[in-house]
Here is the input.
Amino acid sequence: MEKANTKVMITLATMLGAFWAPFVFTSVNVALPTIGLEFNAAPAVLSWILSATLLSTAMFVIPIGKLSDVYGRKKTLLIGSVILTVTSFLCGTAPSIPLLIFYRSLQGIGGAMLTTTVISIVTAAFPPAERGKALGINVACTYIGLSAGPFLGGFIVQNLNWRGIFFLSVPIGIVLLLLTLGIRQEWKEQNSEKLDYAGSLLYAMAILAVVWGLSNLNSNPAAKYTLLAGVLLMLVFGMHQFRVRAPLLDLRTMKKNKVLVFSSLAALINYSSTYAISYMMSLFLQSVQGIDAQTSGLILLIQPAFQALFSPVAGILSDRFEPQYVASAGMGLIAVCLFCLGMINAATPLYLIVFLLAAIGTGFALFSSPNVNSIMSSVGRRLYGVASGLIATARTVGQSFSMAITAFLTTYYLGSRTITAETAGLFVSSFRTTFTFFSLFCLLGVFASLARGKRGMLPEQADTE
Here is the structure.
């Protein structure tokens, strides 16, 4: 009975953690215009309210994943909950944009702690036969957080004040702290190596340069040089990992683990191909088809709603069938739907757009839960934190790449002009080109997903399960 109660507590805590982190990150998006008016801030400055969180998360997920393996995943979840709770309150009381950006960067560190530990705790707590279902529920909560963030954020901004978005996170954090404290078990590897501090610094600097360079590739002349520097730093990091005795990422072992490598690559391609959908569709629905913002928001909820609905089902399927096939089928469905989005125009009926968004959400669910299950099942307990950090890194860098490609193609067609009746045709051309490119890129992801082979751990990992 006690073991069953522990599983219930673990499930509730990880579900709330999986929901809360993306909610904190996305709920502020709709508040940016209001924040800009209050502080008289330019759009370029406001963008850092989003970018600061994205950057700090990307920089710290792998080191934090390693730390959680060494010092304890429950402990890391607790610390992350405290950081997110305190910084949410500080964001709500921020008297200036610079302080708000600083607090948001700290939120990224707390979010990285939650992102890495909820997946690794679920993987450690549930046996392989139940793992897919548990991870599917966890992924569904992430999608609910992503979709509920802008929706609830818009409601709060319209009826209360933008600061209420951050204050709402405080009681959520307190509940998560109480749930986590109710878990008696701890997960850590007593014989794990110490953290590779030099490698962590190199990794953080490389990710900072790559993500910043991608995000600003079309708006800042220095971005391409920063991106190049980031790639070079990543190569230096790789060479360092082969030389150091206790590496942050054991590349020698990883390069033999085809499931881990190709599953992570598939995740990177998937996020790169899909993250810009809501941004581009929001502009298309409002600026081309003349649909109001509130209705557009409800339409855009369809995709994450289907993701949340079918993720547990996809997780169960990955317990019964090879994740290789379930995930590849999901990504194939996404590629077809992205190609169809590349064919639409101002006269396309709304029901067809709704159908495509629902199909993309279903495809994303079929891909994501089995892919996460595949990654986490390909490593031993000693690497659960690092593996979940790889998942978060693929998501963050993929999101940045998606927005960078979108910005590049939109600017190619529109230049510095805004979307008006005269330029709507040019925007539709950029819209169609963007999604045609993403469909072809996503097709590469299908091959990467198939190339992983069947699940299974390396012989040297099997004894750690």
About this structure: The mean pLDDT is 81. The radius of gyration is 21 Å. The chain has three domains: 1-191, 196-247, 253-465. The domain at 1-191 is CATH 1.20.1250.20 (Growth Hormone; Chain: A;).
